[in-house]
Amino acid sequence: DLFAAVEPILPSLQEDGIVVWVLGSGPYPPGVLALQELLDAASEELEPEDVWQPEDMNETCLYIFTSGTTGLPKAARVSHLKSIMCLSFYELVGASSRDVVYLALPLYHMAGSLLGIVGCIGIGATCVLKEKFSASQFWDDCRAEGVTVFQYIGELCRYLVNQPPRPGEREHGLRLAVGSGLRPDVWRSFLQRFGAIRIVETYGMTEGNVTLFNYTG
């Protein structure tokens, strides 16, 4: 969807040795790697372990987009070790393979991709992906999909609290909300309005090595 924004500067990117990968059927200019064709042609069998296993778990696994707290937005290095540690995120907050996790966070940040997607893989839970968060559709989505866990950033909870009251907004199976940046006043309003949902507030930085969990509520 975003290739048109990159195409005008493609020659300068290629001069700098930057390779552009893109999903979708194309056609694309020479030098652009169309991933869909490669995925369709790829074998279902795993390569031998020594091909894909990193020699050092502290080597770079991927670069993740950060919001730029210390300057402009930038790509932060994430190691194989940190990626694997994210497998245990939902287990740490009390979720299990029986849960259905509602995820509407952008997948170019660590919260959505590594804590959210990788966290669901780690416990074998079902992940419901919402392309764009909608406060007016949220509770209907929860009922329709059997959602039990919601991963938030604080603003999403504020959007829900600021919605006009609607019938049935306490009729849901949501039991756990986990995320970052929930203000105390919104926290109280959220519980008073939507029922006895356990909230686990967390804080961590993509570039950091310390994470905080509020287990006590």
Written overview of the protein:
The protein is 34% helix and 22% strand. It has 217 residues and is α/β, with parallel strands linked by helices. Strand 7 (149-153), helix 9 (154-162) and strand 8 (176-180) form a beta-alpha-beta unit. Helix 9 crosses helix 10 (184-194). The protein starts with a helix and ends with a strand. The model has no long low-confidence stretch (mean pLDDT 91). Residues 48-211 form the AMP-dependent synthetase/ligase domain. InterPro entries: AMP-binding_CS, AMP-dep_synth/lig_dom, ANL_N_sf. GO terms for molecular function: long-chain fatty acid-CoA ligase activity.
Q: Whole-Å distance between the termini?
A: 41 Å
Tally of domains: 2
Strand order of the largest sheet: 6-5-7-8-9-10
CATH topology of the largest domain: Rossmann fold
Major pleated sheet: 6 strands, mixed
Report the β-strand fraction as a percent range.
15-25%
Structural class estimated from helices and strands: alpha/beta
- The value of Rg in angstroms is 20 Å
Low-pLDDT regions: none
pLDDT average, as an integer? Answer: 91
Instruction: Identify the overall geometry.
Output: globular
Give the SSE order as H and E letters: HHEEHHEEHHEHEHEHEHEE
Instruction: Name the helicity range.
Output: 25-40%
What is the β-strand count?
10
In CATH, what is the class of the largest domain?
Answer: Alpha Beta
Helical segment count? 10
* CATH architecture descriptor of the largest domain: 3-Layer(aba) Sandwich
